Amino acid sequence: MTPRQKRILAALAILDVTVILAMVVLATRLFSTPLPLASTDLPETLPPDLCQWKATQLLAQAELGGIVTLSPGESLRFEILYPLAPGQIADQAAQQVWPAFDVALALDKERCSLFSQVEVVIRATRPGAPARDDMHVNARVSAVDLRAFGAGELSEDEFIERVSYETGSLHER
């Protein structure tokens, strides 16, 4: 090996060691520095539009189709369209109130407790049937009562007593 080749190899070795040391120093500083956003810096509640998006996503995961409206400080409203299968009774549509209440409770855990009331409107339709056969179910409860039920502070019977229900034909409305 010529002296020139030896100098080039020595220079490359020094460069390699320098790059490796720089990477070690950088990695050490990067992992020893606290993250700029600590969990205590997170907002207490998420913005309304993000909460509404989360509610819509959770509603879809519960296999319910509908629209979610969030009025901060006021209500969280679910409008659910429930197609009745042939032979299915309308009471089965009314049972969809419970998964919607579960979505509202899940939102509360996601820092989306921006609402004081939860309202669920279910529109049960029978495809191909006259519109007069369609029905609606409205259920409304205060967020305080829903949270108390979710925390086990209210029994199911006590909670049901605090939910206001309204049912009827969509044609009558």
Report on the architecture of this protein.
- This protein is α+β, with helices and mostly antiparallel strands.
- It has two domains: 3-33; 48-169, no CATH class.
- It is 45% helix and 21% strand.
- It is built from six helices and five strands, in the order H-H-E-E-H-H-E-E-H-H-E.
- It has helices at 3-32, 48-61, 90-94, 97-109, 143-150, 156-162; strands spanning 66-70, 75-83, 117-125, 135-142, 164-169.
- It has a five-stranded mixed beta sheet.
- Strand 1 and strand 2 (75-83) form a beta hairpin.
- The protein is elongated, with a radius of gyration of 29 Å.
- The chain starts with a helix and ends with a strand.
Q: What form results from the Cα inertia axes?
A: elongated
The overall pLDDT average reads 80
Main structural class: alpha+beta
The total of helices stands at 6
Widest beta sheet: strand line-up: 1-2-3-4-5
Low-confidence stretches: 35-39
Largest sheet at a glance?
Answer: 5 strands, mixed
Strand-residue proportion: 15-25%
H and E string: HHEEHHEEHHE
Radius of gyration: 29 Å
Helix content: 40-55%
Counted beta strands: 5
End-to-end CA span: 97 Å
Count of individual domains: 2
